[in-house]
Design goal:
The complex is a heterodimer of chains A (157) and B (269). With 157 residues, chain A is an alpha+beta fold. Chain A has helices at 25-33, 87-94, 104-117, 123-129, 140-156, and strands at 3-10, 13-20, 51-54, 57-60, 73-75. Chain A has two domains: 3-79, Ubiquitin-like (UB roll) (Roll); 87-156, DNA polymerase, domain 1 (Orthogonal Bundle). The N and C termini of chain A lie far apart (52 Å). Chain B has 269 residues and is α+β, with helices and mostly antiparallel strands. In chain B, the strands form four sheets. Chain B has a five-stranded antiparallel beta sheet. Classes of the chains: A alpha+beta (157), B alpha+beta (269).
């Protein structure tokens, strides 16, 4: 199978790796690039565990062809902490928003894009923003609380 | 499986064949690629024409690669916003395209239902002129042959935004697939409906027009008696499938109720 070179920005650093033909971005990030933060849940775009940010928008990495990120900016949960944990990660810890933790990287990506565009979301807007991310522990309430708390803390800061 | 990327849509159209599938946003085609069940060749194109949005005399010309999120962000496309919002979750709306939705298999394809009711026309890559979406949806069901690539979609703007109504019936809120979706476009002339178009999704192999309902509405005013007659004939001529969400029997039983509720809401304005 032919391999294609893919050069892109991952969490602010330029990365290059070879992608097998038809490989999805999730497998590419995990196996070829070595970023294990996006998770494989369903492989069909239903669960949102593989959510990454491409050029500022959330995308499902399992449904994105790896070669499609050539020259683009990709952000994953592993890029959130910068010397210290990101305020969203802090709030997820404080509010016990992770049970098994498998949906957490995807939830964090959806939450980050929400707060980047809308610093004071309503509860309904938070629910809408994470509607593409399933938590099979069904711990949605603490996740919603954590995202709202992050917005509140930022407003006070 | 091979992946072929072309700079222009014209090149991509020439590369299509019975063994090829065109990938737009990837939300459906990549599922097959991941499962190892996709066509032998996946054809892609990054032609900038795919994402163009242009105002035309009576509406809009939308590149087939315009995403649901872009429809939602465009002020002049506000009449389509409730439809785009009904598709997937935020990530899917950032990826899924209006052109791909035309080829989405059951139970997806809610956006195409609205396009069908609005009387949209499609421009196929490598072919001149636009043809009714009705024709493409009818041909889509036939197996074999080479699938065309939709280059752009011409969407007439409803003269009165209140003439257009849409509902997606789903069990899971806010993100669940269709039990059915209904789109109606009821232009009125002196209080009488002229050129009424009613389309159903998830009620057949592809989005379908409800011709019996359209005949009942034509030339009438939207009153209780007309709505009751329309509701009675709602599933006439449709071919609803049985799936994990609902049986064909159930879909037939409730189609009239959902159509009645939508028409009553539009009657109230």
């Amino acid at each position: 199978m032919a391999k294609k070179p893919v050069t892109f920005m991952l969490n602010g650093s330029e990365r290059a790796a070879f992608a097998e033909e038809g490989l999805n971005l999730l497998e590419f990030l995990r196996r070829a690039v070595g970023d294990l933060s996006p998770k494989y849940g369903c492989g069909q775009g239903t669960c949102g565990a593989c959510t990454v940010i491409i050029d500022g928008e959330t995308h499902l990495s399992c449904l994105t062809m790896a070669e499609a990120v050539q020259g683009r900016k990709v952000e994953t949960a592993s890029g959130l902490a910068n010397g210290k944990v990101h305020p969203l990660q802090e709030a997820f810890m404080e509010h016990f928003a992770a049970q098994c933790g498998y949906c957490t990287p995807g939830m964090l990506m959806s939450a980050k894009v929400l707060l980047d565009h809308n610093p004071s979301p309503s509860r309904a807007e938070v629910i809408e923003a994470i509607s593409g991310n399933l938590c099979r522990c069904t711990g949605y309430e603490p996740i919603i609380d954590a995202i709202l708390a992050t917005a509140n803390t930022r407003r006070l800061a | 499986m091979r992946v072929e990327s072309y700079n222009t849509l014209a090149e991509a159209a020439r590369a299509m064949g019975p063994d090829a599938v065109f990938m737009a946003g990837g939300t459906l085609v990549m599922r097959d690629v991941n499962a190892g069940t996709s066509a032998g060749r996946v054809v892609r194109s990054a032609d900038p024409a795919l994402t163009e949005i242009r105002a035309t005399g009576d509406g809009f010309s939308l590149g087939s690669g315009v995403t649901m999120a872009r429809v939602l962000a465009h002020r002049d496309l506000a009449f389509l916003a409730p439809v785009a919002r009904a598709v997937g979750g935020p990530q899917v709306r950032n990826m899924a395209t209006i052109g791909g939705n035309i080829f989405a298999h059951h139970p997806y394809g809610d956006f195409a239902v609205a396009l069908l009711a609005l009387g949209a026309r499609v421009v196929l890559a490598g072919q001149g002129g636009a043809k009714p979406l009705d024709d493409l949806l009818r041909e889509r069901g036939r197996s074999g042959g080479t699938s065309p690539i939709v280059a752009s979609i011409e969407v007439p703007r409803p003269r009165d935004p209140r003439a257009f109504g849409f509902v997606k019936v789903s069990r899971i809120k806010p993100k669940g697939v269709s039990v059915m979706s209904i789109a109606v476009n009821l232009p009125r002339d002196g209080g009488r409906m002229r050129g009424a178009r009613v389309a159903f999704g998830a009620m057949g192999p592809a989005p379908l027009r409800a011709s019996a309902v359209e005949r009942v509405l034509e030339g009438q005013s939207l009153d209780a008696a007309t709505i009751a007659r329309a509701a009675q004939l709602a599933s006439d001529g449709l071919d609803p499938p049985t799936d994990a969400l609902a049986s064909a029997w159930y879909r037939r039983e409730v189609a009239g109720t959902h159509l009645r509720r939508l028409l009553e809401k539009m009657e109230r304005g």
